[in-house]
């Protein structure tokens, strides 16, 4: 069987991934088609935005896995669409250059998003 488009894209961008994400690529290749089937990823967008979205999504999924939270939980799935919207809006405001720290910022945003989602859906219920 040939590679699906997510595997191809993950292989294409993995050289740009920080090592902590790179080591998770095999796990992400199996999860990403499931996430993409449930979340609409924009088509026909600038390559830098596309990379930023993927990297933010990858980091959020890795962070959830690291924290023993299933990235496919029904509470979490709608959050991916919000992450994509936020990254896209920020890109359209900043119009970053390829040489900028855009991808690093997207990694941090994905990381912070995962923590926020956990708090929003699970921890905040325990507190209130």
Walkthrough of the structure:
This protein is an all-alpha fold and about 130 residues long. About 70% of the residues lie in helices and about 0% in strands. The chain has six helices and no strands. α1 packs across α3, α4 packs antiparallel against α5 and α4 runs parallel beside α6.
Quick summary of this structure?
This protein is mostly helical and 128 residues long. The protein has six helices and no strands.
Q: Helices and strands: which structural class?
A: mainly alpha
Largest sheet data: none
- The secondary-structure element order is HHHHHH
Determine the N-to-C terminus distance.
50 Å
Q: What are the defining features of this structure?
A:
single chain, 128 residues, mainly alpha, 6 helices, 71% helix, globular
List the helices and strands and how they pair.
Blueprint lengths: L4 H9 L5 H4 L2 H14 L8 H20 L10 H18 L7 H26 L1
């Amino acid at each position: 069987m040939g590679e699906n488009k997510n595997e191809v894209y993950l292989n294409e961008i993995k050289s740009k991934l920080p090592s902590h994400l790179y080591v998770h690529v095999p796990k992400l290749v199996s999860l990403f088609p499931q996430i993409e089937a449930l979340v609409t990823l924009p088509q026909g967008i600038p390559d830098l935005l596309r990379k930023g979205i993927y990297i933010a999504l990858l980091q959020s999924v890795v962070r959830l896995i690291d924290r023993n939270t299933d990235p496919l939980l029904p509470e979490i799935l709608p959050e991916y669409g919000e992450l994509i919207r936020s990254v896209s809006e920020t890109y359209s405001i900043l119009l970053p250059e390829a040489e900028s720290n855009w991808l690093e910022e997207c990694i941090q945003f994905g990381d912070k998003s995962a923590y926020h989602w956990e708090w929003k859906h699970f921890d905040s219920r325990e507190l209130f």
